[in-house]
């Protein structure tokens, strides 16, 4: 009790302070001296060299000096070769001195450029390394079409610095433009205005007139074609995936409209999707105007399109209102998971939306038992760690549950306009948790003081685990399955009588995840025979089934699992599977490490990094 009182006192103080000047917040994983100087616009001029696996060229930063006595511009870099730095003084370029600091395992190298407020633009000539943490270079064999190489960036959280010397903190925003040269038979696209129709000539220009945090600067290069889904939306993909992607994602326009109805206008012009090769380590990445999407959600039945609703929702939560530091990631991901689900409800109906809530919460509950207590706090203590190492479902689902809790307490008629106004109020700004809390207090809590106490809010934001008051989504369809399953467990029903014929992917996931982890071999055989799960082609169902099969020692999955692990690089799938194999037995561990050896070069540097730790290849 005393602890809560103390915390709510702190909360009160924070609320009274109100919003602070954000660039005064030092981002613990950035070197940038944003108190002295900020880059307001950057121009990239880069050549994409697939043979050398290198981006080479320069970046120009237009500067706004905030401190007239400042004598340096400090940028973030990681493993970038700097050739020279120039500064513009009275419209003329002059060489500038620079020092590249020692490499830090988390932050990379500090680039200190000697410059003062007389310098209005700096130009840095540089080249990336083949292992750049924010780029993945794929051979033709690793693409769907098998004939052309592919390259793409993934800058969130702190990887923009591995391909652009930049003030790599989400507390700041830049507009950008770019001139990109590529081999003539490839197309480059960016998180910006892309030229339509696509003319393959190896020379592409881009303009991003809206200010975005640097982690949203993104590029993709490959054998890409474009197909429109509506006037505003379309898909870029390798030719062989284009048609199936369009069919899968053609509700995107309806999703935009649902989002706008709830939370105000979509402010970014076009909204397109780039379908990446299966090595992409995430489900999706909300790069503005052009979300990057894993092909593993092209299921043929729209069962996994909540991913599109998610990346689109970031056009409000994240891209419009941005977390100021990575400790505040829940402001991006929690709001986005909440908005995603509201949009799914609008477009696909409440029963499906509730099933998705349930599945998310079930995963979170498992994760909460595995994580360090500190990593289950919404206002995440990073303590100098790489944000990648503190990544979990907590900012997503606990954040979503907190917002669902507010929705339930205040009612949609009050909560929906609050969220809409919040996006509007902080549009194109970066805010931290404190700023959100003070806005929440002023615009909702103190308006209706009888609804919830500040103690309750502080528990959600500053305490580990899930508060007792957490919403508990219930799906009728899932409850029916649970009842039928218990009848089956009690021997009152046959497997074949579970009425599974009409099940959706969500219902299958509920069913598989609810099965005991200590089933007999006979039951596993029976399950597989009845439902043919080893042959499923749905990437989520496969994942759930393989996870169950590994712990239940059902090794009929061997060859399906092998091709799954070799085809897919999505971390959410491959990391838990490798971990289960590693923990299972010596035999499975050896099998897994052999597969990893063969598959490793096809995985993204981020996935390699995580899995090297699993297999102790890089003792840390
Ligand atoms: N922005 C994230 C991906 C991300 C987060 C990359 C943190 C690097 C650091 C993206 O919007 C996301 O959340 N993707 C999820 C989608 C899912 C929750 C529907 C994913 O990749 O699985
Ligand atoms: Zn997200």
Description:
This protein is 38% helix and 20% strand. It is α+β, with helices and mostly antiparallel strands and 620 residues long. It has a seven-stranded mixed beta sheet with strand order 5-4-8-2-1-11-13, with no helix packed on it. Strands 15-16-17-19-18 form a five-stranded mixed beta sheet, covered by helices on one side. A hairpin with an 8-residue loop joins strand 6 and strand 7 (109-114). The longest helix has 21 residues, at 350-370. It is globular, with a radius of gyration of 25 Å. The protein starts with a helix and ends in a 6-residue tail after the last helix. 46% of the residues are buried.
Primary descriptors:
620 residues, alpha+beta, five-stranded mixed β-sheet, 18 helices, 21 strands, 38% helix, globular, disordered N terminus, binds ligand BES, binds zinc ion
Helices and strands in order:
Layout lengths: L1 H16 L19 E13 L4 E12 L6 E6 L2 E10 L2 E4 L2 E3 L8 E6 L6 E8 L6 E4 L11 E4 L20 E8 L5 E4 L12 E10 L6 E4 L2 E4 L4 E5 L1 H11 L2 H12 L7 E5 L8 E2 L4 E4 L12 H8 L7 E3 L5 H20 L1 H21 L23 H17 L1 H14 L3 E3 L1 H13 L8 H9 L13 H14 L15 H10 L6 H11 L7 H13 L6 H10 L3 H14 L1 H14 L5 H10 L6
Parallel strand pairs: 1-11, 16-17, 17-19, 20-21
Antiparallel strand pairs: 1-2, 2-8, 3-7, 4-5, 4-8, 6-7, 9-10, 10-14, 11-13, 12-14, 15-16, 18-19
């Amino acid at each position: 009790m005393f602890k809560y009182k103390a915390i709510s006192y702190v909360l009160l103080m924070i609320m009274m302070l109100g919003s602070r000047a954000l660039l005064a917040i030092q981002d613990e994983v950035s070197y940038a001296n944003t108190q002295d100087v900020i880059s307001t616009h950057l121009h990239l001029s880069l050549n994409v060299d697939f043979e050398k696996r290198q981006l080479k060229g320069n970046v120009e930063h237009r500067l706004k000096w905030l401190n007239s006595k400042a004598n340096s511009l400090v940028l973030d870099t990681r493993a970038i070769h700097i050739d020279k730095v120039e500064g513009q003084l009275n419209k003329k370029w002059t060489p500038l001195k620079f020092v590249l600091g020692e490499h830090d395992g988390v932050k990379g190298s500090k680039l200190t450029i000697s410059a003062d407020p007389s310098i209005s633009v700096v130009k840095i000539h540089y080249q990336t390394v083949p292992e750049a943490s924010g780029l993945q270079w794929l051979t033709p064999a690793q693409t769907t079409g098998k004939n052309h190489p592919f390259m793409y960036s993934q800058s969130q959280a702190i990887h923009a610095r591995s391909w652009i010397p930049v003030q790599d903190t989400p507390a700041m925003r830049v507009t950008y433009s770019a001139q990109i040269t590529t081999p003539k038979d490839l197309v480059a696209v960016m998180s910006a205005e892309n030229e339509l129709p696509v003319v393959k000539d190896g020379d592409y220009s881009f303009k991003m007139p809206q200010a975005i945090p640097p982690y949203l600067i993104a590029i993709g290069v490959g054998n890409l074609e474009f197909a429109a889904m509506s006037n505003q939306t379309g898909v870029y993909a390798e030719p062989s995936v284009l048609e199936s992607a369009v069919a899968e994602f053609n509700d995107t326009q309806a999703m935009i409209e649902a989002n706008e109805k709830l939370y105000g206008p979509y402010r970014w012009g076009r909204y397109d999707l780039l379908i990446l090769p299966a090595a992409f380590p995430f489900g999706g990445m909300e790069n503005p105007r052009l979300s990057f999407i894993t092909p593993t959600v092209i299921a043929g039945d729209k069962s996994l399109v909540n991913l599109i609703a998610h990346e689109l929702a970031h056009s409000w939560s994240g891209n419009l209102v941005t977390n100021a530091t990575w400790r505040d990631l829940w402001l991006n991901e929690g709001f986005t998971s909440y908005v995603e689900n509201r949009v799914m409800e609008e477009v696909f109906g409440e029963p499906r939306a509730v099933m998705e809530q349930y599945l998310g919460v079930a995963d979170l509950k498992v994760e909460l038992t595995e994580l360090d207590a500190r990593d289950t706090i919404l206002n995440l203590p990073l303590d100098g760690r790489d944000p990648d190492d503190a990544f979990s479902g907590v900012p997503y689902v606990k954040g979503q549950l907190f917002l669902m809790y507010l929705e339930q307490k205040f009612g949609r008629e009050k909560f929906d306009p609050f969220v809409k106004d919040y996006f509007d109020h902080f549009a194109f700004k970066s805010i931290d948790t404190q700023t959100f809390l003070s806005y929440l207090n002023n615009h909702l809590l103190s308006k209706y003081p009888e609804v919830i106490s500040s103690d309750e809010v502080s528990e959600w934001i500053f305490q580990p685990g899930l508060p007792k008051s957490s919403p508990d989504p219930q799906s009728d369809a899932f409850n029916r399955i649970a009842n039928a399953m218990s009848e089956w467990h009690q021997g009152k029903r046959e497997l074949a009588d579970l009425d599974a014929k009409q099940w959706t992917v969500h219902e299958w996931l509920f069913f598989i995840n609810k099965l005991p982890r200590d089933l007999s071999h006979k039951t596993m055989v029976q399950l597989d025979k009845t439902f043919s799960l080893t042959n499923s082609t749905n990437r989520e169902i496969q994942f759930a089934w393989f996870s169950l099969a590994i712990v239940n020692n059902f090794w009929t999955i061997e060859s399906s699992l092998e091709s799954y692990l070799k085809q897919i690089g999505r971390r959410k799938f491959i990391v838990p599977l490798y971990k289960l194999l590693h923990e299972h037995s010596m035999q499975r561990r050896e099998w897994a490490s052999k597969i990893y050896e063969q598959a490793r070069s096809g995985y993204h540097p981020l996935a390699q990094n995580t899995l090297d730790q699993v297999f102790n290849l890089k003792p840390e």
